[in-house]
Amino acid sequence: MEDQSSKPRIGIVGAESSHTLAFARTLNIDKACGSARVVAVWGERREFAEKAAREGHIPEIVRRPEEMLGRIDGVMIAHRHPKYHIKAAWVFLEAGIPLFIDKPFSFTVSEGMTFLKAARQRGVPVTSFSILPEQKSFRNVLLRQIRDAGRISAIQALAPCDFKSKWGGVFFYGIHLIEMLLKAFGCGIEWVEVVRAGRRNPNVAVVMHYGGGGPIVSALFLTEGFPDFAIDAIGSKGRVHYVNWFDPNPYLGGVKKIVRMFRTRREPYSAGEILGPISVLEALARSYQSGKRERMLTPFLE
């Protein structure tokens, strides 16, 4: 008889996000991860769950997330607004269920740290990430260019993001660029400063400073124009020029990583790698409100 851990039964909490349907299609229709399947879904509204179940071939809709307990081997928490993520995840953590918490992991560093400490104490694997650094173009093009460029002294970036988004402001889409920057150039950002464009222009400019002689970063978070994700950098040996392009199924690399964790119970990213982007986003949100330079909170767990 096949071990259930080799064909994990997966539940998804949250159906408002487009990611829910993308995950289900990848697993249930494309069958891209062997026998792993999404077997249950809960939606913020019934129609969200019904759409995900119908189009993603998910066999069961539950009325309460905790009804999944005993029926699943792993769970994905996939709300659009990150303020709901940690609250929704606790019942599964307490039951020992491995968790993928969709981006952004949490809405504050403090709640995220509390949750990850509890997960470590219980031995429950948890991960969270943006799909942007999971693209082959990121790994095979951007990271190669950075290696060839030598010591990086300056970075310039573009990304779509609305600091006034009803789904968490800069957290909702800013997570993608911030996670790309941290995975590409390292976690050592010490402070950030946000500059608003003006009353009739919703776009935002950001300066981020790495400590220890690291690079200075200038980034444009654009509501108008909706650009591609792009990163340029200046190094001691050359220049980096990167515009993201997606894999044919942009979710596949990430879904494979999630399913591997459910099967092996080995986390792909450390607590510091998960919380680092949240610390930057929290500082960006503070600077947007204060108009001042804001320093990072220290989120790292050893």
Structure description:
There is one protein chain. With 302 residues, the chain is α/β, with parallel strands linked by helices. It has 2 domains: 4-130 and 249-268, Rossmann fold; 132-247 and 279-295, Dihydrodipicolinate Reductase, domain 2. 36% of the residues lie in helices and 24% in strands. The chain has 8 helices and 13 strands. The chain has helices at 18-29, 46-56, 85-94, 109-122, 136-149, 170-185, 252-264, 271-290, and strands at 9-13, 37-42, 60-61, 74-77, 99-101, 126-127, 152-160, 189-198, 201-210, 216-222, 230-235, 239-243, 294-295. The chain has a 7-stranded mixed β-sheet with strand order 12-11-7-10-9-8-13, covered by helices on one side. Strand 9 and strand 10 (216-222) form a beta hairpin. The longest helix is centred in the last third of the chain and has 20 residues, at 271-290. The mean pLDDT is 94.
Radius of gyration over all CA atoms, rounded: 19 Å
> End-to-end span in angstroms?
39 Å
Strand order of the largest sheet: 12-11-7-10-9-8-13
Query: What is the β-strand count?
Result: 13
What's the overall average pLDDT, rounded? Answer: 94
Helix content: 25-40%
Can you identify the CATH class of the largest domain?
A: Alpha Beta
| Number of domains as seen in the coordinates | 2
Based on the structure given, which CATH architecture of the largest domain is correct? 3-Layer(aba) Sandwich
Order of helices and strands: EHEHEEHEHEHEHEEEEEHHE
Major β-sheet annotation: 7 strands, mixed
What is the strand content? 15-25%
Q: Which parts are unreliable, with pLDDT below 50 for 5 consecutive residues or more?
A: none
CATH topology descriptor of the largest domain: Rossmann fold
Count of discrete alpha- or pi-helical segments spanning 4 or more residues:
8
CATH superfamily of the largest domain: NAD(P)-binding Rossmann-like Domain
Class from secondary-structure proportions: alpha/beta
Query: What overall geometry do the principal axes of the alpha carbons give?
Result: globular
